[in-house]
Amino acid sequence: MILFSFVAILPPLVMHSFHGDWVMLAVLGFFLNVVQGLFPLFMNIVPMETVPERLAATASALSMSVGEMIGAAATPAVAGALADVYGLPIVMWIAAAGPFLAALVGFAMRESNLRKVKSRLPNGANVPAVESE
After folding, report:
1. What 3-state DSSP class applies to 62?
2. 98-109 pLDDT, tens per residue?
3. Closest CA to 70 of 110, 43, 106, 50
4. In a 3-state reduction of DSSP, which class is residue 20?
5. CA-CA distance, 89 to 12, in Å (whole number)?
6. Range of the structural domain that residue 66 is part of
7. How many C-beta neighbours within 10 Å does residue 116 have?
8. Does residue 89 lie within any of the structural domains?
9. Looking at the domain assignment, is residue 11 inside a domain?
């Protein structure tokens, strides 16, 4: 998740600095934006795996709603206001800042799947206590 978050910084920066043919820009945009498929992991799978089963739907809905409020409502308004002051290129820098922040969050994450945690422990070691339902 960290690696692809860093790769997701590239599309807005390429769109900002590319000065070639529009067809090549479209091809680059298509292939570079494939990494945007990473963000459903942040929004769905990770929250659902980190809470008890009875709270999985709530965790998923909460992360999606916060993402929509920030990504679809607040960020365009802020980016538009900043573009009025600093010019349109600032919008691409803001678009690159989101994946950068996601990569930083990725460094703070830890595995919560007990099967994966057990497979990494030496033989005979106990799994740390996990909150049960």
Report:
1. helix
2. 889 989 988 988
3. 43
4. coil
5. 10
6. 2-107
7. 9
8. yes
9. yes
pTM (two decimals)? 0.73
Residue 116, domain member (yes or no)? no
Cα separations (Å) of 131 from 56, 58, 114? 14, 17, 12
Task: Tell which residue, 95, 42, 104, has the closest CA to residue 67.
Answer: 42
The full DSSP string for 73-108 is IIHHHHHHHHHHHH-THHHHHHHHHHHHHHHHHHHH
37 burial type by CB count under 10 A (0-12 exposed, 13-18 middle, 19+ buried): exposed
Q: How many domains does the chain have?
A: 1
CA distance 59 to 69: 15
Non-local CB neighbours of 40 within 8 Å, separated by 6+ positions: none
Contacts 24+ apart (CB under 8 A), 37-41: 38/1, 38/4, 38/5, 38/8, 38/102, 39/8, 39/102, 41/1
Residue-wise pLDDT for 29-41, tens only, equals 888 888 877 777 7
* 38 assigned to some structural domain: yes
